[in-house]
Amino acid sequence: MGQTHNNSNILKTWLVISIIILITSHVNSQNEPVHHVLIETNMGNMKIKLYNDTPNHRDNFLNLVSQKHFDGTLFYRVIENFVIQGGSSDSRNAAPGRRIGYGSSTKIISSEFVPDRFHKKGALCAPRQPEDVNHFRMSDVSQFYIVHGRVFTHEELDMLERRVNNPIRRKLREKYYDPHKEELDRLREENPRGFNELLREIRSNIDIEFNLSDHLIYTEKQREIYTTIGGLPDLDGDYTVFGEVIEGLDVIEKIAKLATDDHDRPIQDVRITIKKL
What we know:
Structural class: alpha+beta
Number of helices: 7
Oligomer: single chain
Largest sheet: 8 strands, antiparallel
Radius of gyration: 23 Å
Number of strands: 10
CATH architecture of the domain at 34-144 and 237-276: Beta Barrel
C-alpha cells in the first residue's frame, strides 16, 4: 500500500501543477489584443479570429500571412461534412488534376491543445502528419484547415467518448487493480475495513491518472454546439484549434459543396489571399 500511496501523492502534485499552468496561461491570454485576419477567395471572404491561448500557432500563422505565404494558394482538399483545407505552397498555379499537399515550405511546431478550443463548425486548425511518422503530433502551420463538419446527436457523442476512454480505463485497471487482486480477495474475508481502504486508494489513483490522460469528456458547451451548429468532435485533442471564422460561415458551405476530383480537389479552383486586419 505504501507504493500506491506514493503514486497517489505524485499524481495529485502533477494535477495541481497542471491546473496552475492552465489558469496562468488563460489569465495572460485575456490581457492580449485580439488578432484578426481576412481570408479572401473567389467564392467570398471569411473573417477569422485567432486565439491568444494558442500563441505559437497564432504568431507563426501571422508571420506567414505577413510573408504572403498563403497568397495564390488553393483550398485544395475539400470534403463536405468534414473540412476545407488549403495553404499548401505546391497548390499555387497547380495544373488541373495535379495532386497537392506536399508543399516544400512546411513549418512544424509543437501542438497546443486547449480544452476550450474544439472542432466546432468554422474552427481554424493546423493539420499534421500521421502519428506513425509524427509521434509528438507536431503541427504543420504552413497550411490550415477549416471545419465544415455536421450535427451530432448526444448518443453519437457518448459513443465517441467510450471509444477513447474505455481502453484508457482498462489499462489503468491493469496497472492499479490487477496487482492487488489477491490481496483484495484476502482482505475482503479477513479485514473488510482494510479492503475498503485499499479499494478506495486504488480507485483514487485510477481517477487521478485518468484525469491526467488524453481522455475524452465533452463539456456541456461542446455538446450544445456539436448538437446544434455541428463540427468534428472526433478530432478534438488530436489537432490544434487556433482560431475560428466569425464572419463568412456561408462561404464554408459554398466551398464544401463544390464538385471534386478523386483526390478531393475542387474542379473549380478556390484561390486564397490572407490579410491582417
